[in-house]
Input
Amino acid sequence: MNPNIQTFINLMKHPLKFRMFLFTKLPAAYFAGVRVREIDEKRCVVTVPYKWLSQNPFRSTYFACLSMAAEMSTGSLAMAHLYKISPPVSMLVIKVESEYFKKATGRTSFVCEDGVLFEKAIEETIATGEARTVKAKSIGTNKEGEVVAEFFITWSFKAKSKK
Output
């Protein structure tokens, strides 16, 4: 287990540092209002509001904004397990699958509970030097708890070789 996970989680929970990260590295997510609400080594909750900058012409949240929040719920968990790890491991989205069930007309919360899968894949790629993939699930719900969308984000991990 990466001993630096808690340091990363503390950075993600720091309101100013996280917003500066979004503003400089993911400005579309910043302006759409995507925010990490909860994170630990196993689970991450990310929200996206329905507002002018995240809307579509059908009076609901644009699918791309939903996708940003879903990806962030999975990617934040992966990044927590990779933070300051040695040897370094690269990560990359290789596939996104989604299904939509209801209009997202308010704040949508995406929950990913696949931290253990990320930890295992990262340990395996470091041990073997071979790439590993994780198909992470993120479920988006509205304030009533109804499922709005379900995403499967497939991440690839590869230990970087020493040069």
In short: The first helix runs from residue 5 to 13. The two ends are 25 Å apart (CA to CA). The mean pLDDT is 94. Strands lie at 35-39, 44-48, 89-100, 108-112, 132-141, 147-159.
